[in-house]
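Hi all, posting the design record for the shared folder.

TITLE: backbone redesign
STEP: 1 of 1
STRUCTURE INPUT:
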């Protein structure tokens, strides 16, 4: 029962059900989803006929509610209740406006309608609850609000003098790092790049907006919602309502995407819980797509200065990454934008810094690949600029700066196959056809360009427990409060349990999304598969130990008294030497009531291997674009990612994750931008008509290839996080391809056609 699993299975002769880990198994929840039988939060009908809430948002970004008249709304047809700061139930105060610690950020009280202050545009100022959604929405328009408006700060660029250093970045990293003498070395460098990039505000826009159905039963509330991490929602809501967490149950079996916007409670959850209690009736509230732009987090605007100094051979002697980011004035959030640069390339003199400028917006939140997504967009373009100045191929430049150990921590890498990813990608993509001279390849009206970028992302594990049970029919049930946000969690956990216990996939049921199940780290930070997979793996190992101990000590068992050290579970049988026993028969004999066990993994930061090794996943992105030489329209032609993320648990869902990330790369490079009106603090393009995200027609030929390895330093499975890796560097590869096509270097994202003309 060693705590490590067999090597990747796809090269084995057996392709049967007995070695399912790694196989491209179809999603086990797929049939439910395509048949419309997967019930999402707003579709739930539990607890009786619900009432419907509609949120009225503030029309100013900063100030006070001077007067609010709800009388017309209260008289409107179907209206049951109107809540404002004047009659909202007591909640825990928001707390000091200084940075909470990183764990507190996930779980702190987030009261709604708590007082007459307005802190950001579209902050809830009233909730109308009615018999129907339409009645609630119509009545919300009848509320008259008079504001005492105060001036706010909304523009990062004009307030850079007010920038300050936070204590820590997101994920608890140091704000600054310095090695050697960056300024001295940079000034002496023979070849330099000093480039400043701007990345805009962006919004997550999962397909399923935030939505909650709250149902009270006595002193306990059940929250059906769309969440990534149930433990955060449970603690956050309990703290807000001032009640013990065990009386808050969060249920979230199906989620239509999150991308980081569903890690903490938002207005829909808090207001539904408050209103349902007042009315003693279930209440449903969804944020509209427009409301999500102010009330469900965003990625902040940033200004990044990248300074690279190299010797004439292309060896970096100085590397600097300085980030200025906007942040909410009432709750700070500092993306770890320059942190990846501390581990990516060798350079003896190094400097990375994060600075914040407070603005009157809602809190920024974690958005897919926080830090690396905007950071690599800038840094990997700067590397492209340096390669051109050196007259070096961009891949060769990166190979010349491949470090032998983590350049700032001075510890070895667990595994690192970045160079292999770049070489394999170059071969597959036909990189040798790239002309290093920009603007030279033309097909009719199209200018063709190739670009590449590296990808790196830290590997995390979050504290996680899983429970696995087997019954007398040999049916296995795994339970944990993990979520499947579309990533494939149900499927990979089914595969891991089936392989660990040697039972067919059809014998395993994975139950997720209920806070009554053992606590996990949830879906976020690309830690979900490795954390929950490892916990399931350990739970199965513990279950096998319990089964064998019972079998050995049970006189009616054919395995009674045998030495079971070499026992294995394969094909629904327990094998011991020449003898085998059907697993279900064995359970019937030794534990007719069934038998269960738990398995746990600790947070990566509590492990020795985290201190001893630099753990990341890697990749190389390649892009080919065509740019219309008259209109500047940019079309993706091909994208390729070669990914090194340890062992792959399901070749199909892993590929889907990477393709999704690469699609985000297209959005970041070419389309996505939330435009903040700096007079009013309002995101003006707050819908999917004006906030552009890539659609199928924008994607074209997209390939993902995995260079598998087994990272035994990372966790018992040897798998590393990959969901967000697909984003990292993908946008930079595209921007570099646009430069290669046109000779125009756009440093203000997104790269839209007007900037090329
Ligand atoms: Mo991800 S931004 O940690 O959900």
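Okay, here is what came back for every position:
SEQUENCE:
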């Amino acid at each position: 029962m060693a705590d490590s699993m067999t090597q990747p299975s796809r090269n084995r002769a057996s392709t049967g059900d007995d070695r399912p880990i790694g196989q491209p198994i179809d999603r086990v929840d797929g049939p439910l989803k395509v048949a419309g039988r997967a019930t999402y939060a707003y579709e739930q009908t539990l607890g009786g006929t619900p009432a419907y809430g509609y949120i009225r948002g503030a029309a100013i970004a900063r100030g006070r509610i001077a007067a609010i008249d709800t009388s017309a709304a209260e008289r409107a047809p179907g209206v049951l209740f109107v809540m404002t700061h004047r009659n909202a139930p007591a909640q825990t105060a928001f707390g000091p406006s200084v940075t909470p610690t990183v764990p507190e950020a996930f779980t702190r009280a987030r009261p709604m309608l708590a007082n007459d202050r307005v802190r950001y545009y579209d902050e809830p100022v009233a909730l109308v609850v009615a018999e129907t959604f339409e009645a609630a929405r119509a009545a919300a328009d009848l509320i008259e609000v008079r504001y005492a408006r105060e001036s706010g700060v909304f523009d990062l660029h004009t307030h850079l003098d007010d920038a300050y250093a936070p204590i820590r970045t997101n994920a608890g990293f140091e704000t600054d790092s310095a090695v050697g003498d960056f300024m001295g070395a940079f000034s002496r460098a023979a070849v330099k790049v000093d480039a400043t990039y701007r990345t805009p505000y962006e919004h997550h826009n999962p397909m399923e907006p935030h939505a909650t159905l709250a149902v009270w039963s006595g002193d306990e509330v059940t929250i059906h919602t769309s969440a990534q991490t149930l433990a955060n929602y449970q603690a956050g809501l309990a703290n807000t309502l001032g009640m013990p967490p065990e009386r808050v149950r969060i249920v979230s079996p199906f989620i239509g995407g999150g991308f980081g916007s569903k890690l903490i409670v938002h207005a829909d959850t808090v207001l539904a819980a408050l209103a349902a209690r007042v009315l003693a009736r279930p209440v449903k509230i969804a944020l509209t797509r427009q409301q999500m732009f102010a009330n469900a987090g965003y990625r902040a605007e940033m200004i990044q200065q990248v300074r690279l100094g190299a010797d004439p051979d292309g060896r970096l002697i100085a590397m600097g990454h300085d980030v200025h980011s906007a942040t909410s004035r009432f709750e700070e959030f500092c993306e770890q934008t320059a942190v990846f640069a501390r581990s990516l390339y060798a350079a003896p003199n190094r400097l990375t810094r994060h600075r914040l400028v407070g603005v009157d917006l809602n809190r920024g939140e974690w958005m897919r690949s926080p830090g690396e997504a905007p950071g690599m967009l800038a840094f990997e373009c700067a590397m492209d600029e340096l390669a051109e100045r050196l007259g070096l191929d961009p891949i060769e430049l990166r190979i010349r700066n491949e470090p032998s150990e983590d350049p700032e921590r001075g510890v070895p890498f667990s595994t690192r196959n970045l160079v292999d990813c770049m070489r394999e990608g170059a071969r597959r993509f036909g990189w040798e056809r790239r002309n290093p001279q920009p603007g030279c390849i033309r097909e009719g009206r199209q200018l063709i360009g190739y670009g590449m970028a590296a990808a790196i992302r830290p590997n995390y594990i979050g504290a996680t427990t899983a429970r696995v049970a087997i019954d007398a029919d040999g049916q296995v049930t795994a339970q944990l409060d993990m979520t499947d946000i579309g990533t494939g969690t149900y499927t990979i956990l089914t595969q891991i349990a089936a392989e660990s216990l040697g039972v067919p996939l059809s014998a395993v049921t994975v139950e997720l999304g209920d806070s009554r199940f053992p606590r996990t780290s949830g879906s976020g930070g690309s830690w979900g598969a490795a954390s929950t997979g490892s916990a399931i793996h350990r739970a199965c190992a513990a279950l096998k130990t319990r089964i064998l101990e019972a079998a050995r000590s049970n006189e009616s068992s054919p395995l009674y008294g045998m030495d079971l050290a070499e026992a294995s579970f394969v094909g629904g049988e327990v094998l011991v030497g020449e003898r085998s026993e059907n697993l279900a028969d064995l359970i019937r004999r030794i534990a007719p009531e069934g038998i269960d066990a738990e398995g746990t993994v600790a947070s990566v930061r509590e492990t020795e291997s985290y201190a001893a090794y630099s753990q990341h996943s890697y990749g190389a992105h390649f892009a080919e674009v065509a740019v219309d030489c008259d209109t500047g329209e940019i079309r993706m032609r091909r994208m390729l990612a070669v990914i090194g993320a340890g062992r792959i648990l399901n070749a199909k869902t892993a590929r889907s994750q990477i393709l999704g990330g690469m699609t985000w790369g297209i959005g970041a490079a070419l389309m996505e931008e939330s435009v903040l009106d700096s007079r009013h603090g309002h995101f003006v393009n707050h819908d999917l008509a004006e906030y552009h995200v890539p659609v199928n027609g924008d994607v074209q030929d997209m390939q993902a290839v995995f260079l598998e390895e087994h990272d035994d330093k990372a966790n018992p499975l040897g798998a590393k996080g990959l969901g967000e890796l697909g984003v990292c560097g993908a946008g930079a590869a595209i921007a570099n391809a646009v430069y290669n096509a046109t000779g125009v270097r756009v440093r203000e994202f997104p790269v839209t056609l007007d900037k090329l003309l």
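COMMENT: Residues 91 and 241 are 5 Å apart (CA to CA).
Let me know if anyone wants the other runs.
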